[in-house]
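anyone else get weird line breaks when pasting these?? whatever heres mine. first is seq + tokens for prot A
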Amino acid sequence: MPADRPAAAPRFARLRATFLRFSEPPSARAEVAVWIALVLVAIGIRAYLAHLLPCVLWSKDAGSYVHSAVAWVEQGTWETDPRRGPVYSLLIAACLRLFGSFDSLMFVQHALGAAAVVAAMLVLRAIHGRAALIPFGLCSYAYAVYGLPIHLEHLLRNETLLFFFGTLAFVAWFCAIRRDSLAALCLSGFAAGCLMLTKNVFGPFPLLVIGGVLFFRREKIARAVLQASLFIVAFALPLIGDRALHALTLHTRPPEPQAGILLYGRTAQFTRLDGGIEPDIKRDIADEVRAYQRLPKLDNNIILKRTVVPHLRQILAAQGKTPADVNHLCMALAKEAIANQPVAYARQGLGDLVSLLFHVADENAAPDDSELRSVRRILAKAEDAEDAIRLPGTVDILDARIGTGSLRPYQHWLATAWLFRLWPVFFTTLLLPVFFFRARGEMRAWWFGAAGVWAFTLVLLCTVGRPMDRYMIAVAPIMFWTLSSAIIELWKIARRACMQPSTDC
């Protein structure tokens, strides 16, 4: 074996020389070429999906989003859905008013998604500079063709807004740090406010930004207070706008808070049926709870939409109670259920965490035949007012695609998103603390904000929500920045090692 070493030495020397040649700082012209290619890829893959499926894909929740928009277009009156909020319905209404069909929403969402992807790339470039152009380009390509946001952009769901506003909030905060920009900080606050109004999945973000500003700029406390105040005002503007819209429009439907209902959907199997609170109501729902407990695989949608919660709504409606009372009752039942079986609840949460870390956000999220058939059934059953505005050929498009394999080239393209193929959630969770501790100055606050929002998301999905791919969409840019930064740092380490004369690289 020692005799093999002299023969191997020239081979390692050639590899080292090749790596050093490719890792040399690129020219500005090369960077422009890379950026053009990345933008074309981000746009091209979305255009290709739109070519294959030139129609928006309806989800089971679509009706609750579009009802307000259709009523406004057809009747000139607005009433915000008390469960969904106004932001996504306003976007739908704008698309209907400007373009006359729901399918235009799909193109708008793809534009927002592509813009968010390119903005995240700009931040990655600013963090690591031009010298790491090759790993930057490879990681950015993977993000450009990452299937999760592209798939959700094609659906009539509000996740694209979560993706866009979440990215914008962090990108603007990054610009505020780098340029000491009040405008960028205000934009970050406004984006976070819009995100919260769409769906509150960035819970700690405002506090983390304000805390970072006040701590790292405490030597200039007057300016720090001004920046924090402007951020708060910008964050509050969407919420104030929602209140104004509510006051100026119809609101015949009472509020429908969901926190307690969602938590009970995750804990109904632990319901204490022998005593405790509301014994009369428990007797009414006992059979449904027991039937749910016997299922081989639990699905909280059964509780939320088919059995227990709809039954509770009927019971309380007969007593003259409101949807807020239903939410309050579900919260009380959920807390009692957790106290009744804390070990089982903890075990469930741990199982959800394992599922999140190792089985979520790493698949090629793409429309397939089963989803197209599901959309086909939704369209066939729907009899709501919004049907009149749907593109008449939608069902024909779906029928022409189902079972033909026409989506396979697109699915193969998605498979090249290599950065997200192996446990992206696990490695992001592992690496975020590393980048926080390595950061300096206000960039440490930025990475801490990313880690805080990431941790909040994981906890939320292990307690109230479920470990599903689409629930990770708002923190997808955090995943991209973290995984890409790890690859780029490894590239830099390898380059430094290869530059040492005594090292066999």
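and prot B, same format (seq, then tokens)
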Amino acid sequence: MRRFRQSRSADRDPALHDLFTPDGMEGEPYPSRPDVRFPLRPLAAGLPNDDVVVTDPRAEGSESDLLFRRAAEQVARRRPAEAVITYRSLLELDEHHVEARSALATILEAQDDLDGAVDQLTLALVDRPADPRLLAQRGAVLAILKRYPDAEADLRRALRESPEHPAALFHLGLLLHRKGLPGEAVTTLRHAIHVDSANSAAQFYLGEALHHQGDLAGAEIALRRAADLDLRQGRALHLLGRILDRQGRSEEAREMYQRAREAAR
């Protein structure tokens, strides 16, 4: 006698076999809720979400505030190109957002777009013409461009507004040093160090200025302080080696040259 195997599909319309095999229909039914077993975006947890538009009604601040925070986060994550786009979007909404212009100028300077940085700071100073921080920032960029008269005007104006402003003092001292005025540079850099004793760059340029004046002992002190403050100050160590060589202290000089090579690695 011919025997028939029992199957769940025994009572089904045979036409269904054209679409589904009996084995394909067996097993537990899928849950009624969507995406329980097979999420549409299995890698979504690993995707960055800082560029997603915030729609949470509980988020505080205006759209400009949200963009400003987003740009700051992009800078913190070392994504300056994205931060530039975000800052520019913010400034299209609020052209008087001074902090955004200052932050954008900082990024542009780091990207060697010095003229772009000056343009942003000039626009910021339209709204805050006496802000010493903005004046010092623009003066520093103008000095890199070797526009020394304009740079010095900004830095001295910043110091008229705030005589103890550390950035203005440092950049003015550096500018005077670059102009070949070591005496004035020494006075200004010492003032900058008095205000901010942790400024290793100020200590280094003070050492350079003292070296140009022939004050080897003073230069040695400044350069050792620069190296102590920043172990990566290879230039300070190298110049210190030259000064020690000039004093006939060959062994100490060789040690400084070795440390300078190690710092440059």
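btw re prot B: Residues 1-59 have pLDDT under 50 and may be disordered. DSSP finds 13 helices and no strands in the chain.
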